[in-house]
């Protein structure tokens, strides 16, 4: 792929990102800043973060294709690529049926959107696709640089690599809580995903594919499921567990630190993730 993401990056909602955070992530040695949520089609924040830094890559995780007109997205991509060649990855995705009234034929809709990006000259190697299931993972490998799976585990990463082959990008996101108090960490994890993400069809279906049951999805998520989806422990333990994605076949891991001290977490993880 054309864009160098590095091995580890930070993933945060757009509301928690600014030029100072991006510059700090660059100083800490992270390869990429992922703009979470559904960034608007003008890609203004991505451009601001790139303007304020010199080496770090910026990626969208992800532009929602129901909300962002492909012509506008493509024009924004070209504006950014002209200024910051090789430093921007356009992540796009279909979102969730619960969040989009017009949600229908998701696979065909994604294909049509990628066709429009082709027509507008957005290079395959500069875009990625949010993908969880086998069909969408194969599409990501065929029509983009690769996949950006969200709310997954190393087991999913291994499966994605098998499906997508050796050359496609696999860049999973993983949430972490830097806390050695297990119950406190699980509480943070449940608050983050239990009453929101685990209730969404796409994520619930993917969790079941990984071998979890309806009982694991109930009541905010079982301890086993929360521990798998939200890593916790001291810095060394969390860094080791994040590295399991790389062992499983990931090219890049998007780290989403949760909690009030998330930026302190990124600072301490930076050393641990590069210590080898």
TrEMBL record:
Supply the NCBIfam families for this chain: F420_MSMEG_4141 (TIGR03620)
InterPro entries in the cross-refs: Bact_Lucif_Oxidored, Lucif-like_OxRdatse_MSMEG_4141, Luciferase-like_dom, Luciferase-like_sf
**GO MF, any single term:** oxidoreductase activity, acting on paired donors, with incorporation or reduction of molecular oxygen
One GO CC term, this protein: cytosol
Q: Which organism is it from?
A: Phytoactinopolyspora halophila
The secretion signal range is none
Q: What is this protein called?
A: LLM class F420-dependent oxidoreductase
Q: Sorted alphabetically, which Gene3D superfamilies does this protein's record hold?
A: Luciferase-like domain (3.20.20.30)
UniProt domain Luciferase-like: residue ranges: 20-103
An example of a Pfam family matching this protein is Bac_luciferase
């Amino acid at each position: 792929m054309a864009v160098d993401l590095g091995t580890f990056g930070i993933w945060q909602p757009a509301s928690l990102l600014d030029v100072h955070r991006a510059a700090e992530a660059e100083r800490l040695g992270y390869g990429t800043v992922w703009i979470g949520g559904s960034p608007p089609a003008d890609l203004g924040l991505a451009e601001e973060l790139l303007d304020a830094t010199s080496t770090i890559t910026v990626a969208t995780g992800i532009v929602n294709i129901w909300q962002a007109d492909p012509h506008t997205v493509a024009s924004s991509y070209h504006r950014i690529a002209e200024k910051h060649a090789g430093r921007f990855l356009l992540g796009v995705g279909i979102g969730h049926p619960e969040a989009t009234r017009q949600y229908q034929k998701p696979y065909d809709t994604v294909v049509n959107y990628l066709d429009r990006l082709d027509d507008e000259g957005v290079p395959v190697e500069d875009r990625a696709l949010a993908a969880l299931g086998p069909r969408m993972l194969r599409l990501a490998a065929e029509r983009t640089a690769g996949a950006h799976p969200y709310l997954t585990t190393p087991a999913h990463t291994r499966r994605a690599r098998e499906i997508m082959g050796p050359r496609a990008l696999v860049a999973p996101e993983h949430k972490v809580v830097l806390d050695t108090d297990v119950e406190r960490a699980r509480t943070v994890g449940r608050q983050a995903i239990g009453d929101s993400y685990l209730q969404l069809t796409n994520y619930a279906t993917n969790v079941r594919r990984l071998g979890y049951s309806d009982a694991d999805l109930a009541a905010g998520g079982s301890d086993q499921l929360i521990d798998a989806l939200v890593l916790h422990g001291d810095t060394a333990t969390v860094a080791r567990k994040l590295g399991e994605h790389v062992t499983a076949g990931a090219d890049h891991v998007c780290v989403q630190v949760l909690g009030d001290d998330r930026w302190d977490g990124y600072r301490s993880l930076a050393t641990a993730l590069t210590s080898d």
